Amino acid sequence: MPDSADAVLDGLDPEQRAVATALHGPVCVLAGAGTGKTRAITHRIAYGVRAGILQPASVLAVTFTARAAGEMRGRLRQLGAGGVQARTFHAAALRQLQYFWPRAVGGEIPRLLERKVQLVAEAGARCRIRLDRNELRDVTGEIEWCKVTQTVPEEYATAAAKTGREVPRDPAEVARIYTTYEQLKRDRGVIDFEDVLLLTVGVLQDRPDVAETVRSQYQHFVVDEYQDVSPLQQRLLELWLGGRDSLCVVGDASQTIYSFTGATPDFLLGFRGRYADATVVKLVRDYRSTPQVVALANGLLGQARGQAAAHRLELVSQREGGPEPSYTEYSDEPAEAEGAARRIRQLIDSGVRPSEIAVLYRINAQSEVYEQALADAGVPYQLRGAERFFERPEVREAGLLLRGAARAAAEPGEPVPVPEQVRAVLSSRGWASEPPAGSGAVRDRWESLAALVRLSEDFAAARPDATLGDFVAELDERANAQHAPTVEGVTLASLHAAKGLEWDAVFLVGLTEGTLPITYAKTDEQVEEERRLLYVGVTRARFHLALSWALSRSPGGRGGRRPSRFLDGLRPGSTARGARGTGAGGGGGAERGQGGRRRRGPVLCRVCGRTLSDAGEIKLMRCEDCPSDLDEALYERLRAWRMDQAKELGQPAYCVFTDKTLLAIAEVRPSDAGELSQIAGVGARKLDKFGADVLALCSGEELGIPVQGAGQLPDEEAEE
C-alpha cells in the first residue's frame, strides 16, 4: 500500500497521472485497448481519497460486470481507498431500490426474476405463438433491448425498423409477447433486471426527497466502459448527478460491440458537447501488446468508417518487438481446428501456460470443433460462458471444507501458512502436486482445485499475515463478484465474451465472409460494429497472434468461402477494398481509389509529425497546441467567399466547407489541386466544384461571381 497520496502517483505515465490528478469538474478519459485505464481511474480515486479531497463513502464507481467491479474494489483496497463503492449499474440500483422501496412505494420489494426465458416462453404460449429455442432466446433479447432503450410495446415495430434490427419474428408478434410478459410479471409480483433500473429511475424522478438522499450520499461518480451505456443507464446516471458535474467517464468508441443490447457510444462521443469545460485525456500508450500486434490493430481501424471511426485512437506500443501476426488459410474447418491445436501444443511445449492462450470465434457454435481438436491433442481447455467457477460442485464442496478448517484453525496453536492449510484440505478431495493423466471429469476437477491452491499462494504473498479465515472471506467476496481465479487450460470464448480479457497468445479463427462480418450485418453501421469486434479480438493478444479461415465447412466441401473483408490490405498479398486506408505503413498522404474516392492512411501533424486521432486535429492537419501559421487575411477572404456560395446554394455555410477546413486551407495555402486535395474535408466533388475558386483565393486573386448551380451537396461530401 502506498504510504502517502503522492506515492499513489508513482509509476503512472504522464497521461495516467493527468487522469489521476484531474479531481474536479467533468473528466473524459478516452482510453485505447491495453493503455491502463483501470489503473488510471483507480489511482485517481485513491489519490483523491488519500489527499483528503474525496471522502470514500461519497464516491460511486460504476462498471458493467461484477467481475470488473470486484477487481476495482480489490485495487482500491490495495491503494488505501477501501471505503469506495464499486458496483455495476444493476447492483447499485438494486441496493438503492431495496433501501428506499418501503418509503417510496410501501411493503416489500417484488421478488427478482433470475431468468426471464421461462416467463417469455409462457407469454408466447398465451399469445398462441410457438417459439423454438433460438427464437425464444432472441425474443427475450428483444424485450431486454426494448426496456433499456425505453421502448414500449406499441413503439417496437417502428423502433426496430428505424435502427435496422434483425427481428426474430414479426414485430407485431414480438410486441404482443412483450405486452403479455409484462402482464405476467405484474400478476406474479416479480421484476426482472431491467425493471431494477426502470424502477430506480422512476423513484428518483417521482420522489425528490429520495433523490436528495442519494445525492447527499454520492457526490462523485466514475463510470468505466462508458461507450457501453444504454439510454436507460444514462438516464439513471443523470438522476444520480442531479445537475452536478463531478463525473469522470472512461471509454473507447472503437470497442463498442454491444449495440444489440442497447449500448451506444453516443454519450461518450457527445460528452464534450454536454460539458464544454470538460478535461479530456487520451490514453494511447499500449502496455499490453507488441508493436506488431498494435500495428495490425491500428491498420484495422484505419479502414473504419462512421462516427466512432472518426474518434479512433492511434495506439503506440510500449513493449519490445515480437513475432508478426500469422495468417493461415485452411481447406476446411476441421483442418483449421487441428492446425490451431497443433500450434497451441507447440506453444505449450515451448513454455507458454495453457491459461495464457485463447481461441476466439464469432459465435459459440464454432467451439465444438475446437473442443474436439484440443482434446485430441491432449490440451486442457475451458469454455468461457459455461458453468460459473464458483458454482462447480467441487468448488462449492472445497469452500465448505475450507470454512470448517478456518474455524478449527482459529483455536490457539502454532500458525501454519495459508497455502499449506489449503493444500492439506484439498488433497483429500483430489488435488495433488501433479495433474492426473488425460482429460475429462477427473482432470477438470483437479484444475478447479489447483486454481484455488494458486489463488491461496497469491493471496498469502499479498497479505503475509492473513489467516485461513481471511482467505475464506476473500473466496466469498470473489464468489459474490463472480471474480473467478485462473483455471490452467486454454480458453475457448466468443469475441463478445473476450472483452476485458487478455492472453499471451490469441488465435482468431473462422475469419470468413458471412461469419465476420456475420451474415445478418446488413447496414454500414452493423458492419462497422463487426469490424470493432475483430479489433477487440486483435487487442486481446500480448505477444502471439494467429488469424485463420477455412474455405469450406467440411472436408471435401466446395471451397467457395472468402477471407473476411476486414483483412483486405492487412494480410500479405491483399489490397484494401474501397476503404480509407490500407493499414500498412505510415504517412499522412492519400491515394485515389475506385470512383476517385480517397483512401487515407494515418494522418500526421504537419508541424510535429505526431499521428493525429482527433477529428478536429485531422481537419487542421496539426495538433491543436502546435504553432499555427494562419494567413488571417486569406481566412477572412475564404469566409466571405463561403458565405456567397452558401447563399447561392441555399444551404448552411458548413455544407460548403467547415471552419476547421477553412482554417487548414488558410494555414497550408495550397498552390495546386494536389495540395488542396490532401486537406481533410476537401473531397473529390468539392475539389471539382470549388477547387478553382479556392486556389485563386490562395494565390491572391479577387473573385466575382459565385459558383453556379444550387442543390444538396452529395452525402459523402456533406459528412464534414
From TrEMBL:
<dbReference type="InterPro" id="IPR010997">
    <property type="entry name" value="HRDC-like_sf"/>
</dbReference>
<dbReference type="InterPro" id="IPR014016">
    <property type="entry name" value="UvrD-like_ATP-bd"/>
</dbReference>
<feature type="domain" description="HRDC">
    <location>
        <begin position="628"/>
        <end position="708"/>
    </location>
</feature>
<dbReference type="InterPro" id="IPR002121">
    <property type="entry name" value="HRDC_dom"/>
</dbReference>
<feature type="domain" description="UvrD-like helicase C-terminal">
    <location>
        <begin position="291"/>
        <end position="543"/>
    </location>
</feature>
<comment type="similarity">
    <text>Belongs to the helicase family. UvrD subfamily.</text>
</comment>
<dbReference type="Pfam" id="PF00580">
    <property type="entry name" value="UvrD-helicase"/>
</dbReference>
<keyword id="KW-0547">Nucleotide-binding</keyword>
<dbReference type="InterPro" id="IPR027417">
    <property type="entry name" value="P-loop_NTPase"/>
</dbReference>
<keyword id="KW-0067">ATP-binding</keyword>
<dbReference type="Pfam" id="PF00570">
    <property type="entry name" value="HRDC"/>
</dbReference>
<dbReference type="InterPro" id="IPR013986">
    <property type="entry name" value="DExx_box_DNA_helicase_dom_sf"/>
</dbReference>
<dbReference type="Pfam" id="PF13361">
    <property type="entry name" value="UvrD_C"/>
</dbReference>
<dbReference type="InterPro" id="IPR044876">
    <property type="entry name" value="HRDC_dom_sf"/>
</dbReference>
<dbReference type="InterPro" id="IPR000212">
    <property type="entry name" value="DNA_helicase_UvrD/REP"/>
</dbReference>
<keyword id="KW-0413">Isomerase</keyword>
<feature type="region of interest" description="Disordered">
    <location>
        <begin position="553"/>
        <end position="600"/>
    </location>
</feature>
<dbReference type="GO" id="GO:0004386">
    <property type="term" value="F:helicase activity"/>
</dbReference>
<dbReference type="InterPro" id="IPR014017">
    <property type="entry name" value="DNA_helicase_UvrD-like_C"/>
</dbReference>
<keyword id="KW-0378">Hydrolase</keyword>
<feature type="domain" description="UvrD-like helicase ATP-binding">
    <location>
        <begin position="10"/>
        <end position="290"/>
    </location>
</feature>
<protein>
    <recommendedName>
        <fullName>DNA 3'-5' helicase</fullName>
        <ecNumber>5.6.2.4</ecNumber>
    </recommendedName>
</protein>
<keyword id="KW-0347">Helicase</keyword>
<feature type="binding site">
    <location>
        <begin position="31"/>
        <end position="38"/>
    </location>
    <ligand>
        <name>ATP</name>
    </ligand>
</feature>
<feature type="compositionally biased region" description="Gly residues">
    <location>
        <begin position="580"/>
        <end position="593"/>
    </location>
</feature>
